Amino acid sequence: MHRHGIGRRSVLAAGAAAAFLRARPAPAADQPALRLLTNWYAQAEHGGFYQARAAGLYAQAGVPVSIKMGGPQVNNMQLLLGGQADIMIGSMELALLAAAKNLPVVAIGTSFQKSVTGFMVHKDITAIEQLRGHPILINTEGRSTFWPWLCARYGFSDGQAGVYTYNIQPFVMNPRLAIQTFVTSEPFAATQKDIPFNYLLLSDLGYHTYGNVLLATKDIVARRGDDVTAFLRASAQGWKDYLYADPAAGDREIVLDNPAMSAAQLDYSRAALRRIEALGEKGGVIGTMNDARWAELHDFVIRDNHALDTPTWRAAYTTEFVSKLDMTV
After folding, report:
1. 201-218 pLDDT tens trace
2. Which of 85, 92, 117, 138 could form a disulfide with 180 if both were Cys (CB 3.0 to 4.6 A apart)?
3. 3-state DSSP call for residue 287?
4. What does the longest C-alpha to C-alpha distance in the chain come to?
5. How far apart are CA 187 and CA 183, in angstroms?
6. Span 273-289, pLDDT tens digits
7. Contact status, residue 217 vs residue 205, Cβ threshold 8 Å
């Protein structure tokens, strides 16, 4: 998607969003903020939320929003269930697990229409099938989610899987090694060091998950449904502005929370999100979810992970709020 013509689309979209925002009553002076907990240190993958806050979109929507960073030592689900957050960035698999355990958590929307996870591989690898027998480093979550699916679909074995520690040095040292990474992150480090690589995105391999899914407590959904809708709509506008208009406001907020984040990394990550069409194809609704995609992932988890099926799995998500979204890419 080219920038030519984006300004006019942004103006039209902003006008539609403004009409919605004006329709909402002003928030009460003592109205508590919706507390969003991210899944890592502030980065471009959270940019739409920072953009919406910095540009005053949440305030205009009548719903104050605070953003708290996650990190490697943060148990987001524990904080959400403990009342320390209202909405968290998680995953479809985590929502299904919560439903199986009857936890009071529900997915209300998503950031991306596809996962930003994939495999960084050496240049001689051009297809996932070529990794049979090669060592592959994956993280703990991946071992219990997409790895069984990869084994079932592509003939991988557990003996190939090692532990990924978020360090690309093993990849540099071993010409047979592949590593699980985010398309927005580790490839930037490799590019900066002139390390050649190819990239295999999980969604391109057939593992069709949403990326950075938003999970909320059922209490918040019940008590503040209008605020949840307003939050999602303002976030959709924030994401469109951050990726396809002017990201300066969002970037400033990101760097304030995470001073280690560089402008070069932010630029690379945004370009990667645009390249893979993370928000969806042109004309698609930003932040939406549908029943078919959830059913597909549920079937993957049950069949390939040999997980115990449960009739409560549909409680993992709701389309009540995304059905009201209309901001398009």
Report:
1. 999 999 999 999 999 999
2. 138
3. coil
4. 61
5. 6
6. 999 999 999 999 999 99
7. no
